[in-house]
Amino acid sequence: MASTSTSRSTVTTPLAPAAIGPYSQGILVGDRLYVSGQIAIDPETGSMIDGSVEEETERVLENVEAVLKAASMTFENVVRCEVYMADMDDYAQINEVYGRYFNELPPARQALEVAELPRGARVEISCIAVR
Length: 131
Prior knowledge:
Order of helices and strands: EEEHEHEE
CATH architecture: 2-Layer Sandwich
Radius of gyration: 15 Å
Strand content: 25-35%
Number of domains: 1
Largest sheet: 6 strands, mixed
Structural class: alpha+beta
Number of strands: 6
Strand order of the largest sheet: 1-2-3-6-4-5
CATH class: Alpha Beta
């Protein structure tokens, strides 16, 4: 059985928060980008924003968008998202904001309530994008 080598590179941008642990903002493998879970950290201050769950979701998606752009991609390239929320009661508000970013051909998605997210975040989103 022949093995094939696929190039793997790290995607980083100052327009998204620096990693707060041993992970990369994104990993590009061939034409596939894996974007690490983003929370509502302001990349300029390194602090969580102080706002509503809608404002948190907007900041999260702006962070995701920055990593996508660093790999020369957009939300149109996203084929799968994972949405984690600290309270399922926030689902409608998160979904409304999410829908503004993914309005044409939305990706496959899972949305889960979790016990806790880093830094007290209420929402975290990761995704996979393909060129």
